[in-house]
UniProtKB/TrEMBL annotation:
Biased composition (Low complexity): 401-430
The organism of origin for this protein: Astyanax mexicanus (Blind cave fish)
GO molecular function terms listed in the Swiss-Prot or TrEMBL record: syntaxin binding
Protein name listed in UniProt: Vacuolar protein sorting-associated protein 54
GO biological process, any: retrograde transport, endosome to Golgi
Length: 695
């Protein structure tokens, strides 16, 4: 039923509403009422006659329609007037408001225009000038910086030609300094400059080339110096060149250059002996060189007097030869001492300014002046002792003394270096040749160990004396190989005695009675540990030396060194355990009184951190960084154990409660203070282990 009603309504609407096609005229783009066709379509009055009409009915209808439309117009006008009269008050109010608004807008526009004019004047008078001055200042600063960069780039660009020029005059040190400075400038001032992207690698290659050139030049110099004629009276050949070479070698840490010199020296010595033999044999008329061809066969035919004369000739040449070597090594020694003193002064300045880091190579450089490495010291000592035993000197010896004093008058030595040299030379053998063999037997391994043990030379004097004894034992075995087994046994007894006596004096507290110490400090313990480590380092070197003098069937005796090494390592471990035990006892006493209550950080933790800092201060200059870290890891483990035990006793758990928060504050204070100690910045303390694990 409802659907039928809806359908009827729809049909009625269709009849009433015009067709969409009839309304489409209003949507046409050419719709204008001026067009008669359009007008007649919109107003279908085509049946009316405008030009007089053909019948009166159409005219009457037209007039009637006009009157009706006029009536409608009057009705509309009356309605508009009535609506205006009804809303006149609001209309006139709106009109007055609009006029007032227009007046205010005009005033506002005038005010804005005035303000903009004043702002423009202020901008022109007060802002533009200062801003331009600031812009000019910034521009000038940028231009100055750019000019400086360009000048720096121009200087860097001239590095390679300048290095080539310096190398052409053998100015190796100047070339190396220039390369180092240029590399530093490239890394700091000119980093990221595209045109210099390959210069760094090129400078590195040039530095490697200079390394090879310095070594080759020093080898050539050594060969020329050692093989020149003895008629040349100059003690040092081209002293300036030698000093430049040594400075360059030291700067590049080519500290094995003395090995090069020793090899050239041995070759020159062999050449001297051979020349003396050939000269002596050629002057003997009793020897028929046509029959006896070989030199060794000719030497067997020499008489005792001829042999003695030959030996005297060889020794005279060797005295001159060693005098030259002494003078050359004195120059080298003075250069080393000068560089070492410079390093020490720099190190002292760094310590005064709060730093204590050591430059690479300082320790190796320091060791070049240690334990009689320079045979000039040995020769000076030998001459001193010879002058004490025999007041009269030959002309040759007097000449050697004169050259020694002349060659030593170079760079002024520091008091510490001179004192160390005096102490060193007093322990050397008296024979010149023996001293040479001792000194030249020291190899590059001795340079490396000094990095750990001789910086601030931090060991007891006793262990330095022990090392001198090692050298004397090794030299004795060189001189008399037949007593190697006996010397090895005695050396093993000496090592055992040193270890046991050190244990008695320090761990056994025997030093309290022997030297009157009030207590054995942690610093004493660390120092003894360092001395023992130094001896342990030397044991394999000594063993290898003795092994070369033994027969294979005698190798079993070398097991003494294995046992001794184990004893020393056990002793070192006991000292480390003692250091941990000292702090362990402190933790047990202090933490047993720990209470979790404000204020924080607690007095207990303040005391613990204070004692940790004292322990670190006592040992950090003595032990290497790795050993210090391992020691404090063990100490931290002990601290966590005692703290965990006390927290368990107090019933404090990791529950986020007030007491847990107080403990966290104390632990954070402890962690911050420990990691603030030098070399312990990255130490993993793993403090969550203090809490009991939840089950």
């Amino acid at each position: 039923m409802y659907l039928l009603q809806r359908e009827k309504i729809h049909e009625r609407c269709k009849n009433i509403c015009p067709n969409k096609d009839d309304l489409s005229i209003f949507m046409r783009p050419d719709f204008v009422l001026n067009d008669p066709a359009t007008f007649n379509t919109v107003l279908p009055w085509s049946h009316f006659s405008v030009a007089g009409g053909k019948n009166s009915r159409d005219g009457a209808s037209s007039r009637l329609l006009q009157e009706k439309l006029s009536h409608y117009l009057d009705v509309v006008e009356v309605s508009i007037a009535r609506q205006i009269s009804l809303r006149s008050e609001a209309f006139f109010h709106a009109m007055s408001s609009q006029h007032e608004l227009q007046d205010r807008l005009r005033e506002t526009a005038v005010a804005v225009a005035t303000l903009r004019a004043r702002t423009a004047v202020m901008d022109r008078v007060m802002c533009r000038g200062p801003l331009q001055a600031l812009k000019d200042t910034v521009t000038r600063s940028n231009c100055t910086k750019l000019h400086g960069k360009l000048k720096l780039m121009a200087a860097v660009q001239q590095t390679q030609p300048t290095v080539q020029l310096l190398l052409s005059t053998s100015e190796f040190v100047g070339a190396l300094e220039l390369i180092a400075t240029t590399k530093e400038v490239l890394q700091q001032e000119l980093q990221g400059i595209h045109s210099f992207r390959h210069l760094g690698s090129q400078l590195c290659e040039m530095e490697k080339l200079i390394d090879k050139m310095i070594v080759a030049d020093f080898t050539t110099y050594s060969r020329s110096d050692l093989n020149r004629s003895f008629e040349d009276d100059s003690q040092v050949l081209e002293k300036d060149r030698l000093q430049s070479l040594v400075f360059g070698l030291l700067r590049q840490r080519k500290l094995d250059f003395l090995d090069i010199y020793s090899e050239e020296m041995m070759q020159a010595a062999k050449g001297i002996v051979r020349q003396c033999v050939l000269r002596s044999v050629s002057q003997i008329e009793d020897i028929d060189t046509d029959t006896v061809v070989k030199l060794q066969d000719q030497m067997r035919l020499m008489k005792f007097s001829q042999w003695f004369e030959l030996l005297q000739n060889v020794f005279e040449h060797f005295v001159l030869f060693l005098t030259r070597i002494k003078a050359t090594l004195s120059v080298i020694r003075n250069v080393v001492l000068e560089v070492l003193d410079s390093c020490q002064r720099s190190h002292e300045d760094e310590e005064d300014s709060g730093g204590s880091s050591l430059r690479p190579g300082e320790a190796e450089l320091a060791y070049l002046t240690h334990e009689g490495l320079f045979i000039s010291d040995a020769l000076n000592e030998a001459e001193r002792r010879s002058s004490t035993a025999a007041p009269s000197k030959t002309q040759t010896q007097t000449r050697a003394e004169t050259s020694g004093s002349d060659s030593a008058s170079g760079t002024t030595e520091s008091s510490s270096s001179r004192e160390q040299t005096t102490n060193t030379t007093s322990s050397l053998p008296t024979g010149g040749t023996t001293s040479i063999e001792i000194c030249l037997s020291i190899r590059a391994t001795s340079y490396i160990i000094s990095l750990h043990y001789f910086i601030l030379y931090i060991v007891f004097r006793t262990v330095l004396l022990l090392i001198r004894i090692f050298l004397e034992y090794c030299q004795c075995v060189n001189d008399i190989p037949s007593i190697t087994t006996d010397m090895l046994t005695r050396l093993a007894d000496l090592l055992k005695h040193f270890n046991s006596r050190s244990c008695q004096l320090v761990l056994g507290a025997g030093a309290l009675q022997v030297v009157g110490l009030k207590t054995i400090t942690t610093k004493n313990l660390a120092l003894v540990s360092r001395c023992l480590q130094l001896v342990v380092h030397y044991i394999p070197i000594i063993r290898a030396h003795f092994e070369t003098k033994l027969q294979p069937k005698q190798y079993s005796i070398l097991r003494h060194f294995d046992h001794i090494t184990k004893d020393y390592n056990d002793h070192i471990a006991e000292i480390s355990a003692k250091l941990v035990a000292i702090m362990d006892g402190l933790f047990e006493r202090v933490l047993s009184k720990y209470e979790v209550k404000a204020p924080m950080p607690s007095l207990c933790f303040r005391n613990v951190c204070k004692q940790m800092a004292k322990m670190h201060e006592a040992i950090h200059d003595l032990l290497p960084e790795e050993q210090t870290q391992m020691l404090f890891l063990r100490i931290n483990t002990s601290f966590k154990m005692h703290l965990k035990r006390q927290l368990s006793r107090l019933g404090v758990i990791n529950d986020g409660g007030p007491q847990h928060g107080l403990v966290v504050v104390d632990v954070a204070f402890y962690t911050e203070n420990v990691q603030a100690l030098r070399s312990l910045e990255r130490l993993d303390l793993n403090m969550p282990e203090i809490w009991e694990q939840k089950r």
